[in-house]
Request: fold
Amino acid sequence: MTDLTPLWSPLRIGSTRLVNRVALAPMTRISATEEGHATDRMVSYYEAFARGGFGLLITEGIYPDAAYGQGYLFQPGIATEEQARSWADVVDAVHAAGAKIFAQLMHAGAQAQGNRFVDSTIGPSAVAPKGEQLGFYRGEGPYPVPAEITAEQMEEVRRSFVSAALRAQDAGFDGVEIHGANGYLLDQFLTDYLNLRTDEYGGSPENRVRFAAEICRAVREAVGPDLTVGIRISQAKVSDHDHRWSGGSDEARVIFSTLGATGIDFVHTTEYRATAPAFGDDGPSLAALAKEHSGLPVIANGHLDDPETAVSMLAGGAADVVALGKAALANRDWPRRVRSGLPLDELDASLLAPMADVKDWELELS
Reply:
């Protein structure tokens, strides 16, 4: 019988003390108002995971500005004071249930497929993301070719992340996670085939990670020590599941060591399988590489549904926290069930069809 006690040990990340090592992974649920306000439905949705025993909740991606940041229609934002205030009820409900909550700040960049502010997109270069838009997030057809982001727009993006983090702090969030994964804007800068720039933000891994590192540093300096700050990093993308960093482990060293030096408190890695080698058929996982080179606590996500697999990441030292996505949707009380030795349910596919929004019957399960 595998010893699962590492899942239940407390941990401090930055200024945030977690009661256990099990987190809710961020998942887009497109259930905000059209204006990007969090709703009562979202309060109930997040509160259920807190009551189910998750020590940390990381929100779905929240857009930080009223320009190019939004990626999906009915996505929540934190670009205005009104949007920030709408999150306060979510935060209060989660805290009352005994959990902590981080706001994930996400700029969609070229991967946007629904934005009520603009009809075009921006990216590091005029190169469209691979693949098709996601139908269950109201998308259709190929991604358009973005305009190459200008230096002035990059500065606006930096400021928007800082302003969004400050609003999240005012709304009572325990921390913020900067979204640098899954093909969104900061990950587009990291991606060799999407970033063809010839300035200091293109070419080498040191240059391609520069924009993400600048934003991490700016947010860290703005919010001070009382708000936990981290970044999410992946190789794969929403529309390119097989992508791997061409520079392999050397590129991982550059990326994670650079981000680790910005003053942030954690790195959150997400892969299809968190336990799998990051490169090739053997070697360390992406989480283990993040741990080694950043020197920071690591949250790992990716098919850690099985408790034995989840605890292996902690016991082996590759990660400090495990984040569950679809397993959490199937079992909002995953920590309580596992701790009590109760069986786990399989994911009901209707949760994500025809739209991946929060369903009325789903709320009845809370």
In short: The radius of gyration is 19 Å. The first strand starts at residue 11 and ends at 13. The chain has one domain: 5-364.
